[in-house]
């Protein structure tokens, strides 16, 4: 219940360099928010895997899967919020503004015995997000005005 109480949750912040593991080890690149953005999340929002919509700068809005938590597999000491946008970008977008709306909860955070098990779980999460975001009640949030930022807020004209 605590997972859903704050949803939909709208959030915007700069993309910062994370641990560099998503792309390299997992083949699943993620965009990381700064600590300030992570700290602005409701303190009682459940850790785990969520799905929703994401937009870089004033670009297109894409489906996304999001992890909130300590990534038990990697034993992080700081909570992180990592967004995997279900889209292939040609280049990195560090320093750009990422806008997200978190719509639903997939599963709690858990540890995995192996990297393969973790990758497999993430692939399942992506499939579930893909399916759920096709529902009409979720599609309408893709068009939310939140994703249309005034030009003055943009970085590098993106």
Automatic annotation (TrEMBL):
<keyword id="KW-0067">ATP-binding</keyword>
<dbReference type="GO" id="GO:0008531">
    <property type="term" value="F:riboflavin kinase activity"/>
</dbReference>
<dbReference type="InterPro" id="IPR015865">
    <property type="entry name" value="Riboflavin_kinase_bac/euk"/>
</dbReference>
<comment type="function">
    <text>Catalyzes the phosphorylation of riboflavin (vitamin B2) to form flavin-mononucleotide (FMN), hence rate-limiting enzyme in the synthesis of FAD. Essential for TNF-induced reactive oxygen species (ROS) production. Through its interaction with both TNFRSF1A and CYBA, physically and functionally couples TNFRSF1A to NADPH oxidase. TNF-activation of RFK may enhance the incorporation of FAD in NADPH oxidase, a critical step for the assembly and activation of NADPH oxidase.</text>
</comment>
<dbReference type="GO" id="GO:0009398">
    <property type="term" value="P:FMN biosynthetic process"/>
</dbReference>
<keyword id="KW-0418">Kinase</keyword>
<dbReference type="GO" id="GO:0005524">
    <property type="term" value="F:ATP binding"/>
</dbReference>
<keyword id="KW-0285">Flavoprotein</keyword>
<protein>
    <recommendedName>
        <fullName>Riboflavin kinase</fullName>
        <ecNumber>2.7.1.26</ecNumber>
    </recommendedName>
</protein>
<dbReference type="GO" id="GO:0046872">
    <property type="term" value="F:metal ion binding"/>
</dbReference>
<keyword id="KW-0288">FMN</keyword>
<comment type="pathway">
    <text>Cofactor biosynthesis; FMN biosynthesis; FMN from riboflavin (ATP route): step 1/1.</text>
</comment>
<keyword id="KW-0547">Nucleotide-binding</keyword>
<keyword id="KW-0808">Transferase</keyword>
<keyword id="KW-0862">Zinc</keyword>
<keyword id="KW-0479">Metal-binding</keyword>
<dbReference type="InterPro" id="IPR023465">
    <property type="entry name" value="Riboflavin_kinase_dom_sf"/>
</dbReference>
<dbReference type="Pfam" id="PF01687">
    <property type="entry name" value="Flavokinase"/>
</dbReference>
<dbReference type="GO" id="GO:0005739">
    <property type="term" value="C:mitochondrion"/>
</dbReference>
<feature type="domain" description="Riboflavin kinase">
    <location>
        <begin position="4"/>
        <end position="134"/>
    </location>
</feature>
<dbReference type="GO" id="GO:0009231">
    <property type="term" value="P:riboflavin biosynthetic process"/>
</dbReference>
<dbReference type="InterPro" id="IPR023468">
    <property type="entry name" value="Riboflavin_kinase"/>
</dbReference>
